Amino acid sequence: MSIDHRAEAERLLASADTSIAAALEATLPLADQQHAAVLTGILTNRALGHAMLAAGQTADADVSALRAALITWRSIVAHAVAWNLSFAETDEQHEQWVELAYQLKQAGLDITADVDAITPGFGKDARGVWKSPTVQREDHLRRCAEMPTPWDPQPDTPHTTEQ
């Protein structure tokens, strides 16, 4: 039985499109979002393999197409991680995304710089999003407590007319 590699590549890319939509769906549990993001990468890589076979490039794969697909995948995953780190409400939600970033780093796919570049677009501090929500709230409360209020006593300053 012969495989239609072009049709298989198109089918896998359609599945990857559905999978990344699930990864970005905020109503899904966090673990499901993470699995969908990883599944998107796997499906995309399989689709690339079938596309290369369809083009008759079994030995000499089109490296530029593979590189472009990996760059796109990396950007999608970095955006998903940045968004979820920025807006995690619990330490448990936050920890899973930090763990995903760590595992990618261990695999040689460090997205830390990408996440740091993306988070300011969400109005968040690039260094702060790596801290758990509990630590971020404590830092915020500490900064608020250190800020002067309009009701604080004003220091006595000499008036220029009293000389």
How is the main sheet built? none
Mean pLDDT over the full residue set: 80
Secondary structure tally: strands: 0
- Count of helix runs: 6
Helix fraction, binned, reads 55-70%
Task: Work out the strand percent.
Answer: under 5%
Labels describing this entry:
163 residues, mainly alpha, 65% helix, elongated
Describe this protein's structure.
The structure is a single chain. The protein has 163 residues and is an all-alpha fold. It has 6 helices and no strands. The chain has helices spanning 5-23, 30-54, 63-87, 91-106, 112-118, 133-146. Helix 3 packs antiparallel against helix 4. The longest helix is centred in the first third of the chain and has 25 residues, at 30-54. It is elongated, with a radius of gyration of 24 Å. The relative contact order is 0.09. The model has no long low-confidence stretch (mean pLDDT 80).
Short note summarizing the structure:
With 163 residues, this protein is mainly alpha-helical. 65% of the residues lie in helices and 0% in strands. The protein is elongated, with a radius of gyration of 24 Å.
Architecture blueprint of SSEs:
Blueprint: H1 5-23, H2 30-54, H3 63-87, H4 91-106, H5 112-118, H6 133-146
